[in-house]
Amino acid sequence: MRDRNTNGSGEPVRGVGAPLDLNLLRTFLTVHRTGSFTAAARLLGLSQPTVTTQIRSLERQLGHELFERQARGVTPAPHADELAARLVRPLDELAAVAGPADGTDDTPAEPVHLAGPAELLSRCVLPGLAPLVDAGVRLRITPGLTEPLLEDLRAGRHDLVIATYRPRGRALTALPLTDEEFVLVTSPTQADRLTATRTERLASPARAERPGTTARLQAALHAVPLVAYAEDLPIVRRYWRHVFGGRLVRQPEVTMPDLNAVKAAVVGGTGFTVLPRYLCAAELASGSLVLLHDPEDPPINTSFLVQRPGTSGNPHVAVVRDHLLAAARDW
After folding, report:
1. Residue 309, phi then psi, degrees to nearest 5
2. pTM of the predicted model, to two decimals?
3. Would you call 260 helix, strand, or coil by DSSP?
4. From CA 117, how far away is CA 146, in angstroms rounded?
5. Residue 282 φ/ψ, nearest 5 degrees
6. pLDDT tens across 119-148, in order?
7. Which helix (H) or strand (E) holds 161?
8. Cα-flanking dihedrals φ and ψ of residue 223, to 5°?
9. Distance CA 184, CA 292 (A)
10. Buried b (16+ CB within 10 A) or exposed e, 189-211
11. d(CA 221, CA 239)
């Protein structure tokens, strides 16, 4: 007979003098994953004082503190990390077997809350979701920046988040979704002006440079307005560093925290910018945008599909996740 004070592998659960309440362990694991008593309470359908009481009860039984209280959330102690590593698999498997708390199958599944960058959602994600909606999947889509969206994911406000970087830590499951290539583009009118400027620079003995170098392009672009997503030029600076091997020192003439709006401004002749290729492929094909440079090694950014901690009771979350992972191969 298995000792009730051992885990599934037969190892003793240190500090346990009596069998631990499964509800306490479930609450502990949810707090560990979310990093917050408030977020854990929301996910578990409990009040925050109840979560606090349960964690304190578990700490008394184990004989040591599990979390360090911070101004925002909690930080797990080493004992907590060790306990979570031993609990995560059996508790998730138990939750998957148990299914919905009421045991019914005839109630409609809850909506799947999906969030990510507005441009990727509108251009790639939403056009391919029709089959899921036809099959009865309900969706709640939220655009936004990765950092606050991941915070909301941990707090239980989203089920899936498309993130522009892999989140730190092991609490969140992150799978590579798609690679986006960045391209340097402008309008045909601005491209003609740049060609004239670069020709003049090459014809001038004092400013002559070797044909084929990118230095003329960089110099010519200083006379062209820069349209950017944000004042600190996160996308443009990354392109400059990766392709040109240097730091871009200038301020944008126009900023707009919407890449579709940035694209529209450049198509209208405002200046130049750096965009994800998927977002401007149609404009490049039609000629309303011109590729200014085509490096052999363009900058690439990988997006990740991140799932809420724990096993979801909503079967449609896995349906949406798997659909996105398959559809992203063609983006």
Report:
1. -60, 145
2. 0.67
3. helix
4. 7
5. -65, -40
6. 999 999 999 898 899 888 999 999 999 999
7. strand 160-163
8. -95, 0
9. 6
10. ebbebbeebbeebeeeeeeeeee
11. 14
